[in-house]
Design goal:
Elements: E1 19-24, E2 27-34, E3 37-40, H1 41-46, H2 66-70, H3 73-88, H4 93-96, H5 98-101, E4 102-104, E5 110-111, E6 119-122, H6 126-136, E7 153-155, E8 161-163, E9 168-169, E10 172-175, E11 184-187, E12 191-192, E13 195-201, E14 220-227, E15 230-231, H7 232-238, E16 252-254, E17 259-260, H8 261-264, E18 268-269, E19 289-290, E20 293-299, E21 306-312, H9 320-328, E22 339-341, H10 356-359, E23 367-368, E24 374-375, E25 383-391, E26 396-398, E27 402-407
Parallel strand pairs: 6-22, 8-16, 9-27
Antiparallel strand pairs: 1-2, 1-5, 2-3, 3-4, 6-7, 10-11, 12-15, 13-14, 13-22, 14-16, 14-17, 18-19, 20-21, 20-25, 23-24, 25-26, 25-27
The chain binds calcium ion (CA).
Calcium ion binds next to loops.
Amino acid sequence: MNWLNVDNHHSFSIYNLPYGIFDREGVPTPGVAIGDHIIDLRACASKGLLNDLDFDKSVFNSSVLNPFMATGKSTWKLMRAWLIHSLTNEASLLHKHQDEVLVNRIGTQMYLPVEVGDYTDFYSSIEHATNVGIMFRDPANALMPNWKHIPVGYHGRASSIVITGTDIKRPNGQTLPPNATNPVFGPSKRLDFELEMAFVVGQSNTLGNPISVDEAEDHIFGMMVFNDWSARDIQKWEYVPLGPFLAKNFASTVSPWIVTMEALDPFRCAGPEHDVPVLPYLQTNRDGNFNIALEVDLMPEGGSPSTISKSNYQYMYWNMSQQLAHHTVNGCNARVGDLMASGTISGKDPGSYGSMLELSWSGKNPIPLANGETRTFIEDGDTIIMRARCSNNDFSIGFGDCVGKILPADQL
Ligand code: CA
């Protein structure tokens, strides 16, 4: 039992203990969420609460988690053990100093928790890749010949990754109207979300030295919900031959807390069966998927939210270990703070599709909302809310909402 009496099925139960950067009197500060509170790690360090732990506590002077993550997995484990012990013992220093180091979580401003050096986006849901292949290319050959051999991905844009709650301006760009030969310029008419999860690299590899599939998880600090906003009309015109560019780089939104791999471990599960054998460097016997229930709500301006998708991270054909092993197999160095997103997470059932492109089947099937309106793509004033949650009979862990509202495009 924890002395804060946080319920085991609270999103931020004692089984979770996710890390984030919160606002304390105007200063971005590293913290851990527990129930409706945040533990101020900088205050814990300065008051000597962490003195028995053998690592450099000045990592908590940073306004991002990169220095703490760089201390490595043994330190991540030390901190988790200390947090659990401190929250379950009334004789702990944390209990004694709670008035100085515990702050209210509800309504507290959060910041981007890591300085993202590089951002890579994979394309690892077989249902999503198949659906997009059918709509954008060839229904008979929806999956490209490489897809079951390579965790396909591309290098994205790190500078436009924003924290939940940040408003997003509808992008302007070039599109090719139906039956036209020349493009036009203006606001995207097919603005979409992509329901994804992203993992954060917490341990680097050096240039020229790949991370093996079996050691990959030692390099992963944790996960966040990730909305990879996408302008489908811009994408369709620009993506051949080198892939997505301005359709994707205007914004991606992350949820506020990084849920650690240790917290996720009880929800480990097998992924979908691979019916095509993979090369040895991608082979692993360990279950590398995680059962994370996902939901997307669309909330019109002034209206109430409607749930328009229910998916699950465990549908991923390629898991994180395979993604990171593939990413580095040529010697590419991943760095602390790098973000690697899953790609849109769709399931088999149409209600589990992870984008409006798929949910409305390229605009052909309008999506009903609770207020009687419908949507094919996102309209100005709409807010997209993504949620992720793991549950078993004994406890739950959540990620905190990943929220973004679409504002009208600039008039040009
Ligand atoms: Ca994506």
